[in-house]
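Incident log, structure service

09:12 report received: a user says their structure output differs between two submissions of the same chain.
09:20 pulled the input from the user's history:
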Amino acid sequence: MNTLKNKVAIITGGSGGIGKATAKLFLENGAKVMLVGRTESKLKKTLEEFNNTNVDYCVADVAKSDDTKFYVSETLLRFGKIDIFFNNAGIEGASRSIAEYPEDIFDQVIAVNLKGVFLGCQYVIPKMTEGGSVIITSSVAGLKGFKGLGPYVASKHAVVGIMRVAALENADRKIRVNTVHPGPVHTRMMRAIEKDIAPDHPEEAQKGFEAGIPFGRYAEPEEIANLVLFLSSDESKYITGTMQVIDGGMIT
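09:34 re-ran on a clean worker, output below:
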């Protein structure tokens, strides 16, 4: 359980389903972890649950450059270096057709899901140790379209482009950059999407999603965390510029 011994990781969206599961796994494998999120109460609760001196948190909006610089500097101050960056924060937006989509929600989705990833790469990677790893959370929605989720789909496609460029630009320092593409996961985000699609019967929306997954179920956050752990470890040190799909066969 020392896969990440002496490694320091930043996790944005650190108190959410996938972020929290990944932080737990990182800590179990010897890493020191900085959790980043916008809601201090959620971050504090997560820290209390972990009860581990190797984890701290930083309140920041990933869509703001000053906040991004802040969580980078706080990580370096607290832990002295950055080896792993799980660029994970994201929001779902609304479930509406493009013709009906509210512009203000479009702006929010792009700000968090795309600009947040860009700013994270811009300010974190230059401070990372040589041979470090950046993992960006995309989605199966970064590989195909889904009706009603236009801005989310656009943002998740766009981060693949950022990943590919960042992988090339940082290859000389052996910093690898990859995206992970989960299908539906049992998290708050999917509960919100289900409720938006079918307000009176969200369980029917879940059944509809599950019907399109050959494995017949959603992923658990811990299953995504296992993939992120592999991409963060030295076992993946020759993997960069790739899209890692983890979807139970959904887009096969």
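09:41 both user submissions now match this output. Likely a transient worker issue. Closing.
09:42 reviewer note: The domain at 8-183+220-246 is CATH 3.40.50.720 (Rossmann fold). The first helix runs from residue 17 to 28.
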